[in-house]
Structure formats: structure tokens, C-alpha cells
């Protein structure tokens, strides 16, 4: 028996051992191991490709087993490995390689739409691997850290690779993505800083409190809600948040690219964290993922590691907003279908913007609000108290004034975020402040005596839930990090509490 490695992705990556054996029985070619139609069709592609090399099939039964056999597999990238195993059944060769590639009828090796995402997810699961891929995708694959990548153009090259050591060496492709050339090292781990500020906070005039909230949100990855009159800069703040978010680790960069590739995009590595902004008319399936048979990725998963922005929050359906509570709280989403159960990470910063009333003039000092109390109540009724409790920072934004001026640039804010980020990583935190577990909150969010007294008063006065208490502590921890303080003081807890959502009613 001979074997090579491959992988299948169906919401979750599964490393697959491809095993081959020839049996003394009536000649036939069988692929077993819950292979889908695409893999079954490889029988004809493999036969045709081998015949172009004048390969003579033995008068035996050929069995190809995809192990583990109790997990469904899909994809046409198994072709090359199957053909090599048949051709080299009587030879000795290194069986530790991962082999990917679809075969043309003429023996050419092709890439597939999903192959790059499979390789990216594989890099998250396997620390190091020797990988054979089609030549057309080799340069991109070589930029994935911890992979030794070898390129082949056709089946003949693939067979020769295992038989000719010198030829195998010539197939290796070495490449480093320029993004990983300049990294930031903290406690031995490398991070990729963003150096581009296409959208700048200097474009926003005034709104000092909104900018402060944006800085805190970015530094700790806290959820934020902007409320204000039309044109005051709510969406501008939310869209600029992405550019001042903390740097990603190399693993996070690869995971972001892997998730983006699931959205049928030609993904590339980027220092910028993901940004997703679905329209309020989007379906529940497009936002949370779904599909009739296979679990497709949705906006909340595509925003993982970055920002999910809901503009005009009350216009989203109540069912959508209530469904948002799970990914916000658990940082994951499980999509269950008849043929698959898929779990995606949803560690995103949730940003939302809304008007104070249907006409938008409730906060205005110059315009009259024409909405009735019932209309305002109905407008805000879609946003439930449990959802509001998951908002870390609430900002009631000011009207635009002729005296408003630019006060800070995105680069200046990013430098402050980076300072707070280093403080969090120096404490050996695996998660940013907003994503700390309840157990870690007690260890990391330490209060002095004055701050504890203030928090106790706030708990009694505002009837804070346990979630509200923890979120206030996490925000205060971020404010203390921005100020360079090891222990949370009175001023930090007061500022944190000032951003709590009291009521939108």
C-alpha cells in the first residue's frame, strides 16, 4: 500500500490520507471514503492523464481510499495525488508530501477555485508541511509561512518529482510576501502593523467625544454605537475605525485571507483588518451564513478579526439583531445543515450607527423634530435591552458647527492604539481587552479602592447586569492602558461608565 496526503474543506478543514492498493481481482477502479461526485469523476480524468504517458494499467483491481472514511470529502484537487499513487505503486518514495492539483485530460495540472483557501486553512492546522501544487498557484502558496512549496506543471513532472531527487530540488519555489518583511515583534511574536490611512479621522471636524470613543474602541476591540443627527459623522467614524485597529499577528493575517477566499474572492494578505458593512435589506442567511445543503460563510464570519458595521441599525430586522447576540457573546457561530455543521470564529468589533428618531432631528438645536413619541418608540423598539447590554461604548454625537476643526489624525490615534496594544501583549494576554474571559477580567482588570467605590455605587444606581459590570471593567482597562497605568483608577472607571448605554427609549 502507498499513500500521500491531501486535504478537504467543507466549512472545516480535514487532513486526508490517500491510500492506494492493487488487488488480484477483476480489473476495476474504485474510490472509497465518502467521496463526492467531483472526486468520483476523477477516475476518468486520472485514466486519461495516465494514458497520455503510455501508462499500462495492470489487470488488477485498483482501490483508492480517502481516510478517515467516515467524513465527507469534496474537491477536484485530489486528482494529482491519486494519479501519482497509481503510477508509482511499485516504487519506493517519500510519502510525507501533501499533493494538490486537478488533472486535465492531457495530463496538465490545474489549480481550483478553492485550492488557495484550502492551503491557508491547512497552514493554520499543520505547523510545517511539504506541499506540491500546480505551477499557476505556486508563487502565492510560497508566501504562506512554514510551507515548503514545490511546483509541477503536468503529471509527468509530478511522477518525476518522486523519482529524481535533483529534479525535485529544482521544483522548489521560494517566496516571501512583502507584507511580512517589516513586522513588529512583541514577546517573540511578530505582528503586521498597518501603515496606510486611506480614510483619516482628520476629515472629521469636531466630535471630540466620538473620536475618544473610537480610540478606546480600537485599542481594546470594544463594540461601539454612534447616535446622532444625519450628517454629523457617525458613518465617517465607523469607517475610519478599521485603519486604527491593532496590528494582526501573522496567523490572523492568514486566517483573514482564508475567510475572504471563502467569499469567492482572489484573497491576498493585507495589514488592514477585514471590514464588512451589510445593507439593512440583507437577508439573515447572507449575514449569518447558511445554504440548503452546505453551510456557506456569512458576513459575521467574514468580519472575523476586523470590524462589522451596521449603518441605520434600527432598520435591520428584529430577527437579525437578536441573532447577532450569539456571535457577539460567544465569538463564534455554528451553522447546522443536513450535510454539514460548520463553526466559524466571530471575533469582530461591532460598530453601529443610528439616528435618534425617524426624522433624525431629535438631538438638533436648530431643526424641529416632527416625530411623535409613539413613532420614536416604534423606531427604537427593534433594539432590545440584551443587545444594548453587549454594546461597550455609546456616543451621542453633537451637531455640526461652523467652529468645528480637525483635532487628530488617524496616524496619531494609531500610535496610541499601538501603545495600548503593547501593554496588553506585555501582560501576556492572548485576547484583546474586549474579548477577555470572565475569569481573566478578575485577574487583569484590577481596581484601586476609589475606583471600586465608584463601581459599587454605579452598580446600585444603574442596576448594571453582570455583563455590564464586566464590560465597564474591560473598557476601563483599555482607558488605563492608553494612559499607561497598571491599575484602574477612579478617572478610568468614571470615563468607562460615562460611555454605558442607559436607554434609547
Automatic annotation (TrEMBL):
GO terms for molecular function: ATP binding. Residues 200-403 form the Magnesium chelatase ChlI-like catalytic domain. SUPFAM superfamilies: P-loop containing nucleoside triphosphate hydrolases, Ribosomal protein S5 domain 2-like. Residues 409-500 form the Mg chelatase-related protein C-terminal domain. NCBIfam families: YifB family Mg chelatase-like AAA ATPase. This is YifB family Mg chelatase-like AAA ATPase. It comes from Campylobacter corcagiensis.
